[in-house]
Every structure is written in C-alpha cells, then in structure tokens.
Amino acid sequence: MFRRTALLALAALLPSSLAQVSEDFESGWDQTAWPTYAPDCNQGGTVTLDSTKAHSGTNSIRVNGAGGFCGHIFFGTTAVPTGDVYVRVYLQAQTALTSSHVSFITMPDSNQGTDKHLRIGGQSGILMYNRESDDATLPALSPNGIAASEALPTGTWECFEYHLSTNGSIETWLNGDAIAGLTSIKGVTNEYNTQWQSNTEIPSVTGIYFGWESYGGDVNTFWYDDIAVASTRVGCL
Ligand SMILES: *[C@@H]1O[C@H](CO)[C@@H](O)[C@H](O)[C@H]1NC(C)=O
C-alpha cells in the first residue's frame, strides 16, 4: 500500500513526462486511481476485484465482458507519460479470439479526435491493433498479415507488452517475444503495416484501459494483473 501510494504521490509531483504507475492489486482495487471506463453506454459488462485468481499474490481484476458494443467495460489509468509509452500487463483470457472484431485494451487518442481510440484486440483469430478513426488494422487482415500475428492463448497468464514511440512506431511483445505483425516501425514498411502507416498521425493517448469490447456478439472474461505503465520498457517479471 505504501509503495503504491508513494508512486502515485510521486507521479502527481513530477512532470507528466515522468508519470508512471505499477499496480498488483494486492491492496485491493483503488477505483479512484483505476476507474472504470465505458464511453457512450454500459450494459452488462462488469469489473470486479478477484481474490481467487492472480499472476502475483492473490488478487487480480476480473472483467466480465458482455456481447455487443454496449456490453463493453474497461478499467484503467490516465497516468500516461508524455513521450514514449511502455505498457506491461499480465492478462488471461477465458475464451479464444474468434473471427469477430473485439478489443481488450482501449486508449483515447487525442490525435484521432474526440472519443476516438487506439485499440488492441483481435479479429480473424489473431491479436491486432485497430485505429478507430479510419478502422485500419495492424496487421492488415490479409493471409500474410494474419500469419504475422498470433493467437492469444487461453487459461494462462500471458505477459503482454507494447511500446508507443514518439515517432509513431509501435512494438509489441508476448512473453518477451516480439510479434512481427504487431510491429510498425517508422520508415520500415511491409505488406501488413502499409495500411496502418497510410495515416502518419502519431498516437497521443490520454488513458490506458483494460477490459472487453465486442462489435459483434462475442463475450469473454479477462483477468488483468501486475500492470506497469512507464516511459521505458519494464519487461516481464
Ligand atoms: C522510431 O522509433 C522506433 C521505436 O523506438 C525505433 O526503432 C526507430 O529507430 C525510430 N525511427 C526513427 C526514424 O527515429
């Protein structure tokens, strides 16, 4: 408790460029620091502290995501560094990604416009990014693009990490291994990131929210633990 409070106090005092948070939920769910997020509507999805399942310790946050857009629910933080943003989260999905489009991380992105998000989720059975303003995906959902990403294992804790670079590049790691299809480096194009790079706006995210949103009927349960948001790579525990 002391450590988390100290970190948050430090984050409040420092310039936002140095904002950073790390949270293991062992002191419970602080809903002021980690509020729920469900823009527009909130019908059926729930967020709870789960003291029966954890990556470390005994607690995690459980998200029961309902079907359809309004079944969405997230929780997260607005303590986002300016400059490079690195996120490390341990997550566990109950059900495999399907062919339908879903998101499990959403980030309001002021460069895309009001209420537009940079989203991480799945489609075509694989992990992907989706830019809400133009619906571009990373990777492109071509056979080669799909092959360059990966499925999200179910029933196990997965260390998911990503980096939003100040030059617009995106890097992503699953259990420490880079995923080619979820990588878009400025100046390096390939057939699965050309669509993504057609928009040269650099994401500027003002929040990082973990949960569930589906645009068809998919439902799922996700658990999240040991979240770190920082301006340098944190790595897996
Ligand atoms: C942009 O950022 C990425 C990720 O940090 C880095 O690999 C790349 O070298 C940078 N490119 C330029 C042109 O600065």
UniProtKB/TrEMBL annotation:
The Cip1-like core domain, residue ranges: 24-232
The keyword Signal is assigned to this record: yes
Statement: the UniProt record of this protein carries the keyword Flavoprotein: no
Residues of the signal peptide: 1-19
Keywords: Signal
Pfam families: Polysacc_lyase-like
Source domain of life: Eukaryota
Descriptive protein name: Uu.00g143930.m01.CDS01
